[in-house]
Write a structure and sequence with these properties.
It is a single chain. Helix 3 packs across helix 4. The protein is globular, with a radius of gyration of 16 Å. The chain contains six helices and eight strands. It is α/β, with parallel strands linked by helices. 36% of the residues lie in helices and 24% in strands. The N and C termini lie far apart (41 Å).
Protein backbone atom coordinates (compact mmCIF):
# COMPACT_ATOMS: atom_id res chain seq x y z
CA UNK A 1 0.00 0.00 0.00
CA UNK A 2 1.25 3.54 -0.66
CA UNK A 3 3.00 5.41 2.13
CA UNK A 4 0.76 8.21 3.30
CA UNK A 5 3.84 10.29 4.08
CA UNK A 6 4.68 10.54 0.40
CA UNK A 7 7.98 11.26 -1.28
CA UNK A 8 10.28 13.89 0.25
CA UNK A 9 11.08 15.76 -2.97
CA UNK A 10 12.31 19.35 -2.74
CA UNK A 11 14.52 19.81 -5.82
CA UNK A 12 14.58 18.99 -9.55
CA UNK A 13 17.61 18.40 -11.75
CA UNK A 14 18.29 17.41 -15.40
CA UNK A 15 19.02 13.75 -16.08
CA UNK A 16 19.54 12.03 -19.42
CA UNK A 17 17.33 14.45 -21.32
CA UNK A 18 14.53 14.54 -18.76
CA UNK A 19 13.84 16.04 -15.34
CA UNK A 20 14.55 14.03 -12.20
CA UNK A 21 13.63 14.91 -8.64
CA UNK A 22 15.13 14.41 -5.22
CA UNK A 23 15.78 15.71 -1.73
CA UNK A 24 18.62 18.20 -1.24
CA UNK A 25 20.15 18.93 2.17
CA UNK A 26 22.88 21.53 2.69
CA UNK A 27 25.43 21.68 5.53
CA UNK A 28 25.18 24.35 8.25
CA UNK A 29 28.38 26.02 7.07
CA UNK A 30 26.96 26.36 3.54
CA UNK A 31 29.61 24.36 1.68
CA UNK A 32 30.98 20.82 1.86
CA UNK A 33 31.82 17.71 -0.15
CA UNK A 34 29.03 16.35 -2.31
CA UNK A 35 27.25 13.14 -1.41
CA UNK A 36 24.58 11.13 -3.25
CA UNK A 37 22.32 9.11 -0.93
CA UNK A 38 20.50 6.28 -2.72
CA UNK A 39 17.13 5.12 -1.43
CA UNK A 40 15.93 1.71 -0.29
CA UNK A 41 13.17 -0.10 -2.16
CA UNK A 42 10.64 1.80 -0.03
CA UNK A 43 11.27 4.96 -2.08
CA UNK A 44 12.39 8.45 -1.08
CA UNK A 45 10.88 8.14 2.40
CA UNK A 46 11.28 10.19 5.55
CA UNK A 47 14.03 7.77 6.62
CA UNK A 48 16.13 8.56 3.54
CA UNK A 49 15.49 12.29 3.93
CA UNK A 50 16.55 11.97 7.56
CA UNK A 51 19.76 10.21 6.52
CA UNK A 52 20.43 13.05 4.07
CA UNK A 53 19.86 15.58 6.87
CA UNK A 54 22.20 13.66 9.17
CA UNK A 55 24.98 13.66 6.58
CA UNK A 56 24.37 17.36 5.90
CA UNK A 57 24.67 18.10 9.62
CA UNK A 58 28.11 16.45 9.44
CA UNK A 59 29.25 18.85 6.70
CA UNK A 60 28.18 17.29 3.39
CA UNK A 61 26.01 18.72 0.62
CA UNK A 62 23.61 15.84 0.05
CA UNK A 63 21.24 14.86 -2.76
CA UNK A 64 18.93 11.86 -2.47
CA UNK A 65 17.39 11.22 -5.93
CA UNK A 66 13.83 9.94 -6.14
CA UNK A 67 14.19 6.82 -8.30
CA UNK A 68 10.50 5.89 -8.07
CA UNK A 69 9.12 9.18 -9.34
CA UNK A 70 7.23 10.03 -6.17
CA UNK A 71 6.02 6.59 -5.11
CA UNK A 72 6.75 5.38 -1.58
CA UNK A 73 5.52 2.40 0.41
CA UNK A 74 6.07 0.42 3.60
CA UNK A 75 4.56 -2.73 2.10
CA UNK A 76 7.17 -5.31 1.06
CA UNK A 77 5.16 -6.67 -1.88
CA UNK A 78 4.59 -3.17 -3.25
CA UNK A 79 8.26 -2.30 -2.72
CA UNK A 80 9.30 -5.43 -4.62
CA UNK A 81 7.02 -4.42 -7.49
CA UNK A 82 8.43 -0.88 -7.61
CA UNK A 83 11.97 -2.24 -7.64
CA UNK A 84 11.13 -4.82 -10.31
CA UNK A 85 9.55 -2.21 -12.58
CA UNK A 86 12.44 0.27 -12.24
CA UNK A 87 14.70 0.11 -15.32
CA UNK A 88 18.26 -0.26 -14.06
CA UNK A 89 19.66 2.00 -16.77
CA UNK A 90 17.17 4.74 -15.95
CA UNK A 91 18.09 4.56 -12.27
CA UNK A 92 21.81 4.76 -12.99
CA UNK A 93 21.22 7.66 -15.41
CA UNK A 94 19.29 9.54 -12.72
CA UNK A 95 22.09 8.93 -10.24
CA UNK A 96 24.69 10.13 -12.76
CA UNK A 97 22.55 13.24 -13.26
CA UNK A 98 22.60 13.73 -9.50
CA UNK A 99 26.41 13.64 -9.57
CA UNK A 100 26.48 16.27 -12.32
CA UNK A 101 23.99 18.43 -10.42
CA UNK A 102 25.98 18.27 -7.19
CA UNK A 103 29.29 19.05 -8.88
CA UNK A 104 27.67 22.11 -10.44
CA UNK A 105 26.55 23.58 -7.09
CA UNK A 106 28.54 26.36 -5.44
CA UNK A 107 27.92 24.60 -2.12
CA UNK A 108 29.93 21.54 -3.23
CA UNK A 109 33.71 21.50 -2.86
CA UNK A 110 36.04 19.20 -4.79
CA UNK A 111 35.77 17.57 -8.20
CA UNK A 112 34.31 14.25 -7.03
CA UNK A 113 31.47 13.16 -4.76
CA UNK A 114 30.65 10.23 -2.52
CA UNK A 115 27.76 7.79 -2.83
CA UNK A 116 25.99 5.99 0.01
CA UNK A 117 23.20 3.52 -0.71
CA UNK A 118 20.88 1.41 1.41
CA UNK A 119 19.39 -1.98 0.45
CA UNK A 120 18.52 -1.66 -3.27
CA UNK A 121 20.40 1.63 -3.17
CA UNK A 122 23.61 -0.08 -2.07
CA UNK A 123 23.74 -1.98 -5.33
CA UNK A 124 22.85 1.12 -7.33
CA UNK A 125 25.59 3.10 -5.56
CA UNK A 126 28.13 0.54 -6.80
CA UNK A 127 26.66 0.68 -10.32
CA UNK A 128 26.91 4.47 -10.23
CA UNK A 129 30.53 4.39 -9.08
CA UNK A 130 31.45 2.01 -11.91
CA UNK A 131 29.74 4.27 -14.44
CA UNK A 132 30.93 7.62 -13.08
CA UNK A 133 34.61 6.70 -12.73
CA UNK A 134 36.68 9.33 -10.98
CA UNK A 135 33.66 11.60 -10.42
CA UNK A 136 32.78 9.30 -7.50
CA UNK A 137 35.68 9.06 -5.07
CA UNK A 138 34.06 6.99 -2.30
CA UNK A 139 31.12 4.57 -2.27
CA UNK A 140 29.42 3.01 0.75
CA UNK A 141 26.89 0.22 0.12
CA UNK A 142 24.76 -0.72 3.12
CA UNK A 143 23.39 -4.27 2.76
CA UNK A 144 23.03 -4.05 -1.02
CA UNK A 145 24.73 -5.45 -4.13
CA UNK A 146 24.12 -5.00 -7.88
CA UNK A 147 21.21 -7.12 -9.15
CA UNK A 148 23.56 -8.95 -11.53
CA UNK A 149 26.00 -11.05 -9.46
CA UNK A 150 28.31 -11.18 -12.50
CA UNK A 151 28.41 -7.39 -12.87
CA UNK A 152 31.64 -6.12 -14.45
CA UNK A 153 33.12 -3.56 -12.06
CA UNK A 154 35.68 -2.21 -14.52
CA UNK A 155 35.37 1.57 -14.46
CA UNK A 156 35.06 1.71 -10.68
CA UNK A 157 37.88 3.78 -9.19
CA UNK A 158 36.18 4.84 -5.94
CA UNK A 159 37.25 3.60 -2.53
CA UNK A 160 34.66 1.10 -1.26
CA UNK A 161 33.36 0.61 2.29
CA UNK A 162 30.65 -2.04 2.67
CA UNK A 163 28.32 -2.72 5.62
CA UNK A 164 26.45 -6.04 5.73
CA UNK A 165 24.57 -8.07 8.31
CA UNK A 166 25.67 -11.57 9.21
CA UNK A 167 21.99 -12.55 9.47
CA UNK A 168 20.98 -10.94 6.16
CA UNK A 169 19.44 -13.63 3.95
CA UNK A 170 19.08 -11.19 1.06
CA UNK A 171 22.86 -10.64 0.94
CA UNK A 172 24.57 -13.75 2.36
CA UNK A 173 28.17 -13.36 3.39
CA UNK A 174 29.49 -15.57 0.60
CA UNK A 175 27.75 -13.35 -1.99
CA UNK A 176 29.32 -10.28 -0.41
CA UNK A 177 32.74 -11.92 -0.41
CA UNK A 178 32.31 -12.86 -4.07
CA UNK A 179 31.43 -9.27 -4.98
CA UNK A 180 34.50 -8.00 -3.12
CA UNK A 181 36.67 -10.50 -5.01
CA UNK A 182 35.16 -9.44 -8.34
CA UNK A 183 35.87 -5.78 -7.54
CA UNK A 184 39.47 -6.60 -6.64
CA UNK A 185 39.99 -8.65 -9.80
CA UNK A 186 38.47 -6.04 -12.12
CA UNK A 187 40.01 -2.90 -10.58
CA UNK A 188 42.80 -1.62 -8.38
CA UNK A 189 40.28 -1.17 -5.55
CA UNK A 190 40.50 -3.26 -2.39
CA UNK A 191 37.10 -3.00 -0.70
CA UNK A 192 36.84 -2.59 3.05
CA UNK A 193 33.95 -4.85 4.12
CA UNK A 194 32.43 -5.06 7.60
CA UNK A 195 29.95 -7.69 8.78
CA UNK A 196 27.71 -6.96 11.75
CA UNK A 197 25.78 -9.31 14.07
CA UNK A 198 22.53 -8.00 12.61
CA UNK A 199 19.95 -8.58 9.90
CA UNK A 200 19.07 -6.73 6.73
CA UNK A 201 18.33 -2.98 7.03
CA UNK A 202 19.85 -2.75 10.51
CA UNK A 203 20.45 0.98 9.88
CA UNK A 204 16.79 1.86 9.27
CA UNK A 205 15.45 3.33 12.52
CA UNK A 206 11.89 3.39 11.11
CA UNK A 207 12.24 -0.40 11.44
CA UNK A 208 9.85 -1.61 8.69
CA UNK A 209 11.38 -5.12 8.79
CA UNK A 210 11.88 -5.28 12.55
CA UNK A 211 15.66 -5.55 12.13
CA UNK A 212 16.88 -2.12 13.28
CA UNK A 213 19.90 -2.47 15.56
CA UNK A 214 20.84 0.85 17.19
CA UNK A 215 24.26 -0.30 18.41
CA UNK A 216 25.40 -1.71 15.07
CA UNK A 217 23.89 1.32 13.31
CA UNK A 218 26.01 3.66 15.44
CA UNK A 219 29.16 1.68 14.69
CA UNK A 220 28.47 1.67 10.95
CA UNK A 221 27.62 5.39 11.02
CA UNK A 222 30.92 6.33 12.68
CA UNK A 223 32.89 4.17 10.26
CA UNK A 224 31.09 5.76 7.34
CA UNK A 225 31.79 9.33 8.45
CA UNK A 226 35.48 8.56 9.01
CA UNK A 227 35.70 6.90 5.59
CA UNK A 228 33.93 9.71 3.71
CA UNK A 229 35.93 12.44 5.40
CA UNK A 230 39.15 10.59 4.63
CA UNK A 231 38.39 10.32 0.93
CA UNK A 232 36.29 13.44 0.26
CA UNK A 233 37.94 15.93 2.62
Amino acid sequence: MPDQGGSRQNVSFPSNGRTAHGYLARPPQGVGPGLVVVQEWWGLTSHIADMADRFAAEGFTVLAPDLFGGATTHDSAEAARLKRELPVEQAVADLAGAVDFLLGLDSVIGDAVGAVGFCMGGGFALLLAARAGDRVAAVVPFYGLPPDPDFDYRGLTAHVLGHFGELDRANPMDAVDEAAIRIGEATDVRPEIHFYPAGHAFMNDENPLGTYDPLQARIAWRRTLTFLRGHLG
